[in-house]
Amino acid sequence: MSSNSSLFKPLQVGNTTIRNRIGMSAMSRNRSVPTTVPNHVNLEYYVQRAASAGLVITESALITPQGYVT
């Protein structure tokens, strides 16, 4: 693949510049369980993905612990 591919070029979206055109969609990984608050596990997961993706959409967090089904 050519290093000049549009996939790896920055993209201007309004006032924001995304460093490449690789995006990661939100996934429900339930990493905020059991507290329902994002924590160090969430941070580590998204830091790893941000190494390559220009845009990362994070997962939702539960409002209450009762929303989590094991």
Q: State the major sheet.
A: 2 strands, antiparallel
The percentage of residues in β strands lies in: 5-15%
Shape descriptor reads elongated
Mean pLDDT level: 82
Report on this model:
- This protein is α+β, with helices and mostly antiparallel strands.
- The chain has a domain at 23-70.
- Helix content is 16%, strand content 14%.
- It contains one helix and four strands, in the order βββαβ.
- It has one helix at 40-50, and strands spanning 11-13, 16-18, 23-24, 55-56.
- It has a two-stranded antiparallel sheet with strand order 1-2. It has a two-stranded parallel ribbon with strand order 3-4.
- The radius of gyration is 16 Å and the shape is elongated.
- The mean pLDDT is 82.
Describe what is shown at a glance:
The chain has 70 residues and is an alpha+beta fold. It has one helix at 40-50, and strands at 11-13, 16-18, 23-24, 55-56. The protein starts with 10 loop residues before the first strand and ends in a 14-residue tail after the last strand.
Give me the secondary-structure topology.
Blueprint lengths: L10 E3 L2 E3 L4 E2 L15 H11 L4 E2 L14
Parallel strand pairs: 3-4
Antiparallel strand pairs: 1-2
State the main characteristics.
single chain; 70 residues; alpha+beta; two-stranded antiparallel ribbon; two-stranded parallel ribbon; 1 helix; 16% helix; elongated
